[in-house]
Amino acid sequence: MRTQPTRLPGVLIIEPRIFSDERGFFKESFSVERYKAVAGIDSLFVQDNQSCSKSSVLRGLHFQKTKPQGKLISVTRGSIFDVVVDIDPSSSTFGEYIGLELSQSNHRQLWVAPGYAHGFCVLSAQADVSYKCTDYYQADDEGGLAWDCPRLAIDWPIKNPILSAKDRAHPGLEQFLQR
């Protein structure tokens, strides 16, 4: 397994070791000991989530306000453009984002430390995304950030995403400056 830090503190690209032959492949998608030793992830995961979305769906950008979740994100079918945004006004990287493709063929995972906004758009006909979370989802603690916030200027690879009504209504980055 290899890890690659990103410019956002606590956000890592993880490349599990893949064993391929004529039958297909095998990979270890998570091991407490290995992920702690190699990636420094010593968080306890308490909830696993999975989503299935069709092409051009954009989910996000989501976060928990007072009980932030760390997430280990993987794609088991298809491909997505995954985005993480620093929403901490006291951070030196506040308002910055990273975006990268996660897919069933590149096997990459993304570790997102607690405290970031996260979202993705689907690049393939369909995508199955799974993520392990370090805290429980709580509806009354959820927050959102506008996917098209001009201050972020995220270069999404799709131009007319399919969004939920909730995701269309999220405020921009200014919400974090008014605290």
TrEMBL record:
A GO MF term: dTDP-4-dehydrorhamnose 3,5-epimerase activity
Active site: 62, 131
Any one GO BP annotation for this protein: polysaccharide biosynthetic process
Keywords: Isomerase
Membrane-spanning residues: none
Main enzyme class: isomerase
Record-marked site positions (Participates in a stacking interaction with the thymidine ring of dTDP-4-oxo-6-deoxyglucose): 137
A cellular component term, taken from the record's GO annotations: cytosol
Organism domain of life: Bacteria
Pathway: Carbohydrate biosynthesis; dTDP-L-rhamnose biosynthesis
EC assignment: 5.1.3.13
Record field: catalytic activity: dTDP-4-dehydro-6-deoxy-alpha-D-glucose = dTDP-4-dehydro-beta-L-rhamnose
UniProt cross-references to SUPFAM superfamilies, sorted A to Z: RmlC-like cupins
Described function: Catalyzes the epimerization of the C3' and C5'positions of dTDP-6-deoxy-D-xylo-4-hexulose, forming dTDP-6-deoxy-L-lyxo-4-hexulose.
Family: Belongs to the dTDP-4-dehydrorhamnose 3,5-epimerase family.
Complex and partners: Homodimer.
Protein name: dTDP-4-dehydrorhamnose 3,5-epimerase
Taxon lineage: Bacteria, Pseudomonadati, Pseudomonadota, Betaproteobacteria, Burkholderiales
Gene name as annotated: rfbC
